[in-house]
Amino acid sequence: MSPLSLELALGVLGLVLLLVESFTRVPRKTLAYGAIGGLTLALLILVFGGASGQAPGMEEFYAVDALALFYKGLALVATIATIVLSLEYAPVVNQYVATYPEKHKEAGLGEFFSLPVFVCVGMMVMASAKDLITIFVALELVTVSFYVLVAYMRRSAASLEAGVKYLILGALSTGLLIYGLAWLYGMTGALTLEDIAKSLKHWEGSTAPLLFAAALVIAGLGFKVGAVPFHIWVPDVYQGAPTPVTAFLSVGSKAAGFIVLTRVVETFLAEGSAIAQPISHVLLVLGGATILLGNLAAIAQTNFKRLLAYSSIAHAGYLLIVLGCSPAGGTGLTPGQIAAFYLATYLPMTFICFLLLSVARAQGLGEEIASLRGLALSNPKLGMAVTLALASLAGLPLTAGFMGKFLVIFATVLDGLYPYLAIAVIGAAVGFYYYFRVILSLYSKTEGEAAPVKLKLGLPSVVLLVLFTASIVVMGVYPDSVRKALGDKGAAKAHVATAVEKH
């Protein structure tokens, strides 16, 4: 099968969904089920059929390694989960999109169910991109689609404000990124990451221009992943965007940003690179600052979406620290593979939390932590799943989140990065406080309060909840299930000719 077959097929699926929405009166939820079906089929083909081999002429700019396939799988799962959440959130979208919601109960839903498919296509291309042009084009496909989705609820002031902020700051970050890529091309004369790595290895002049280019690229990508100090958009955009879109930003967009950052960083840190040491220090400092700010700011939050926004920032810090570690660590995984493992554990627990918010909002509750008070008592199964997800986000042992944090901390120990080890441990300890504050609220009920609402979940949401809850336990107890999917060290760095030898 051609490496681009799935991406092209999903692009066609997205166009078909939009055409059906425009020229037929098919119930809009049917479009959502069609999107879920098509994405699920693509996921099954990816898992069981693979995408081995290379199309002629694509070897230089499109990777089909274990890491790329793994991230494509994450993109598909995240998109399916987003559309499932969108089904639950549909009444809220209709309320803020339709002129007369009572008369037009499906107004605006077709595009809301279709656009995530195009985001998925962009993320899958980003997973394999290994030249500067492909990286930029795929990144913009994702970003432009998110511009629309964030501001989708046009009658909501919060959604419009989030969209404007995301657009302005996104355009700024895009400018930094394209300027950095252009500067990098001008200095090395190469477009592919492999050729850039070779140029860095044999560089003989001043490294200042290279460091300037690398700084611009890291700044542009830092915005996409919500790293400090490029995080200022995250809290407001996460809070104002439709909840399923916030979940997609938190997981899908972050994963797409980190696969590109992983490949770029591996190029900068390849053996013999003239800029390896300073770039490693920059990543470590950014990671440490991101962990501290994200966790400390989350303590004071009373809005659950805003708390998850700062939590997302903190998790990005752990990923930055591991990318700054030595490529030849003793964990059995490369830094890029550890980051992929971390994101795989982050996906189910984050979507479970946003599923609760989507269902609660659609059924008349707010997004404040106080408004969720006692929900676990009236919804014990959902409450148990959310409790497990929050415990996993905190890093409780025998959960998926614990294994992700453990690998990051172990990598810092092996590299002797004890200051960053301390920051990671302190951040995890602070996380326990604010995550368990939410759990306490879910199980609390004050005398005299009205009985907590009994939430109703659709069948797709129930299936998603069961699968994601099980995955949190499985990845925590049996992490090798994910490690095997990531392949070996060499596979993850096949695109860099000067890869570090394995220990």
TrEMBL record:
It is a multi-pass membrane protein. It comes from the Bacteria. It is an enzyme of class 7 (translocase). Pfam families: Proton_antipo_M. One of its GO terms (biological process) is ATP synthesis coupled electron transport. InterPro entries: NADH-Q_OxRdtase_suN/2, ND/Mrp_TM. The chain crosses the membrane at residues 32-51, 63-87, 107-125, 132-154, 166-187, 208-234, 279-300, 307-329, 341-362, 382-411, 417-436, 457-478. GO terms for cellular component: endomembrane system; plasma membrane. Belongs to the complex I subunit 2 family. NDH-1 is composed of 14 different subunits. Subunits NuoA, H, J, K, L, M, N constitute the membrane sector of the complex. This is NADH-quinone oxidoreductase subunit N. It comes from Roseimicrobium gellanilyticum. The lineage of its organism: Bacteria, Pseudomonadati, Verrucomicrobiota, Verrucomicrobiia, Verrucomicrobiales.
